[in-house]
């Protein structure tokens, strides 16, 4: 209704059929599926790296008061750095290949996972810790067999937040000398005045983010049901 009422010009807000036509054109040329595949690959690799580091460091901080005192203030300070502020530094350190893009997505995924895991472990019932130690569980065994299952809802919520944050950081990541991906498509369409492609990129980012969150939500329900 907004696109056809005359309030906005076609260049400002193209109607839905124009966005669909842009999608068909890009699909026919084989470009759209390539952009989608590249972006999904970057998010999945970056999320895997960032979430793994978040689980490890969050577990360490959640289990050790000394680690919390030494690391938590610095990590929280780094967390406040905006995503775009990392771009020039990553370019300087890592060049213009895939590494800085995946690193930026990993940074985005790391902090929600770290925060929820460390907070979840810190709030686990102390009696569970005592029970695990009474059965000979120490260190990694205590973490994997007692504490992580107890903190499973918080851990899985952190993973979902990390995945969502990874998609948010993707566009900033694809500003780094990129020639493919949905973030590149978004920026390139802005520069060329193709609002139909710009809206298509936004819709695809939203759909992919929602689909990946839904898949992780299914896994979350299965795990919680198993451990509850």
From TrEMBL:
InterPro entries: MetI-like, MetI-like_sf. It holds the Pfam family BPD_transp_1. GO terms for cellular component: plasma membrane. SUPFAM superfamilies: MetI-like. The chain crosses the membrane at residues 43-65, 77-96, 102-121, 142-161, 167-186, 198-219. It is a multi-pass membrane protein. This is ABC transporter permease. It is found in: Cell membrane. Belongs to the binding-protein-dependent transport system permease family. It comes from Streptomyces himalayensis subsp. aureolus. PROSITE patterns: ABC_TM1. Keywords: Cell membrane, Membrane, Transmembrane, Transmembrane helix, Transport. GO terms for biological process: alkanesulfonate transmembrane transport; cellular response to sulfur starvation. Its main location: membrane. CDD domains: TM_PBP2. Residues 32-216 form the ABC transmembrane type-1 domain.
